[in-house]
Amino acid sequence: MSSSQRTSVAIPEEVVRQAIAWRIKLESRGQDGATLQACERWRLAQPENELAWQRLCNLDSTFNKVAQAAPTLAKQTIMETDTELESLSRRQALKNMGGSLCGILAVSWLSYEQGWLDPVYADHVTDGSKALVKLADSSQLWLNQHSSVQVEFTDTKRAIKAARGEIHLTAASDHRPFEVTVSQGVLKTQQATFNLREEDDYSLLQVDDGEVWMYANSGYSRQISAGEVVKLADLAANSMNAERFDYSAWVDGVFSVRDIPLKTLLLELSRYRTGLLRSEPTLENHLISGVFQLNDHDLILKTLARTVGAELQYRTRYWVQLKAKSIA
């Protein structure tokens, strides 16, 4: 194949991300047989997968180490033409990387935050929409958008690891306990319905039916019953006002709020809308109540603006601000 032919082949960004994730997984697990077979199946699934894999493997050994530590750099490089790849030097790669431990850790953290590794490590993943998963025990698991979980069922336990985002679980009755691992510890129940959201430094739990026990890594434990909303931190579980916001309502496609500040509602809406969404400081503490349909963000914004006596300013499609109307 001539170089001009080779340079015309473009690889989708998602495929590049998956190739990098498989490479990291093989390195971290010592290339065990099961992982190698799973990677081989991924490579054979479509021609783009194999092409991305070959481009990654064709890089020299020094740059491979950088690729494992810095998926961003590797992604950009693999998506370049073959000719450009051949001209990339070790010095250029290391210079772009910065050569520092901080740089490596920062890129690794970004890869996790953006969910690049989810297709490899998670059993169920969502992007821009929610999804319902029926588990083997007849439990129902909803994943909100941009969420991922790992599932493990055995003869003695049912387990989920909430890796990212938000889930809503209806755990069916079973002789096996149902465990959900979060950053702060493990939630356990025999039969319950609850909503769980993973934030950067805490988890938010709303129990809709039944009872859930929290066993924290730090040693504390707490029972959370139906009707309670609890903020799970490393050292304590703190109750929140359960009447102001229904954290499970997204399953039905709505926001259900009662007397919450406009600023708080806009932050919640930002989870579903791309771009910058804010209000003037004078409007932030205006209390909002109502039920809003999540499938029409523009209607929500128009309703909020009318409610607080504001007008919508669109600097761009993705930058919206609620501004108090001028008094003539």
Automatic annotation (TrEMBL):
Q: Which InterPro entries match?
A: FecR, FecR_N, Ferrdict_sens_TM
Q: What protein does this entry describe? A: DUF4880 domain-containing protein
Tree of life domain: Bacteria
Task: Return one GO MF term.
Answer: sigma factor antagonist activity
Coiled-coil region: none
Q: A Pfam family matched by this chain, by name?
A: FecR
Q: In the record, what lineage is assigned to the organism producing the protein?
A: Bacteria, Pseudomonadati, Pseudomonadota, Gammaproteobacteria, Alteromonadales
The segment(s) forming the FecR protein domain are 126-212
> Could you tell me which residue ranges the FecR N-terminal domain spans?
17-59
* Gene3D superfamilies membership: 2.60.120.1440
